[in-house]
Design brief:
Jelly Rolls; 3 domains; 12 helices
Length: 316
């Protein structure tokens, strides 16, 4: 039997749930989903319809695989648009803002796997475990890690076995061990395909250090988004020169720091417009805009309506 057919047959007896943002998304676009600390792994079967509400762009700290099993879509990830068909396997660049933009068919069904690196590497990072995670952490701008269906037979076959194990109540206490074993095989195939060499392993550790630097900056922006934060200050917080910071930030987030800060401020403004009766000029000043007319123009460009229209339409 064709391995992709095995995978689709494994999903036929299972229930797909409509895609929904079921956890909070903060002003920076972070999807705040927490995974089980003892077994940080989750497999979801999601359905997407063409008439669904717009899907927000989000990023997250957990790692993710996205595998359409029927239909297809265009998925935006940072500055790139990825065309996916049934059977393709996408290693999501999780730190970039991403979302399914539109479907190429009326409906799409997908297997979505979310996990934390601790599931793989445990307390001690061994070389083999590190190489399994390289495809998730070392991605090149404009070259998303997509394993196309014709090359994904081994992954399809292992995913079918993983689903059988994950949704079989008879597995009892052996379920988690079985799921982890099958998933490690999936990661092995992905690492081999995307060439997890010693060079990429070295790059992986570099990326980890860069991510730590940016995390300090993200925390600072979250607390002080209403204050003036220039490129020079942002680079100093990240411990980088301005050219290094500019390059790293775009690689990590798919946008510039100025555009990112603007989105953070506008997102907070939108929340305050809905949750308070405060004057619009006061809200503009609190989120970092000294000129109310400039705030009005930027808000309208981002949300498609003025702040007053946004407040009124949302409450209707």
């Amino acid at each position: 039997m064709d391995p992709f057919t095995e995978l689709t047959q494994a999903t036929r007896r299972l229930r797909f749930e409509p895609y929904a943002v079921d956890q909070p998304v903060d002003a920076e676009g972070r999807y705040q989903r927490e995974l089980d600390g003892d077994f940080p792994f989750e497999v979801k079967l999601l359905s997407f319809a063409s008439d669904m509400a717009p899907r927000p762009q989000t990023w997250h700290t957990y790692l993710e695989l996205f595998v359409p099993v029927s239909g297809g879509c265009r998925l935006r990830m940072g500055g790139a648009v990825v065309e996916l068909e049934a059977g393709d396997v996408l290693v999501v660049d999780h730190l970039k803002l991403h979302s399914v933009e539109d479907l190429t068919t009326g409906e799409m069904r997908a297997v979505v796997i979310r996990f934390l690196p601790e599931l793989v590497r445990g307390l001690v990072a061994r070389t083999a475990d590190t190489l399994s995670l390289v495809p998730f952490y070392c991605q090149i701008e404009g070259r998303p890690h997509v394993l196309r269906r014709p090359s994904a037979a081994a992954v399809h076959q292992t995913l079918a076995a993983l689903l059988d194990c994950a949704f079989d109540d008879a597995q009892g206490p052996y379920r988690e061990g079985g799921v982890r074993a099958f998933f490690l095989v999936v990661l092995h195939h992905l690492a081999r395909h995307f060439g997890a060499s010693d060079t990429l392993r070295s790059e992986y550790f570099k990326q980890q250090q860069k991510a730590k630097r940016l995390s300090r900056l993200f925390d600072h922006v979250h607390r002080h988004f209403g204050e003036r934060i220039g490129l020079g200050q942002a680079a100093r917080i990240a411990g980088l020169s301005r050219p290094q910071f500019t390059k790293l930030f775009r690689e990590a987030s798919g946008t510039t720091f100025v555009a990112y800060l603007l989105k953070v401020r506008l997102a907070h403004a939108g929340r305050l417009l809905l949750e308070t009766e405060r004057p619009i000029a006061d809200i503009a000043f609190e989120v970092g805009f000294e000129d109310p007319s400039y705030f009005d123009r930027r808000f309208r460009a981002h949300f498609g309506r003025t702040p007053l229209e946004y407040r009124r339409s949302a409450r209707k």
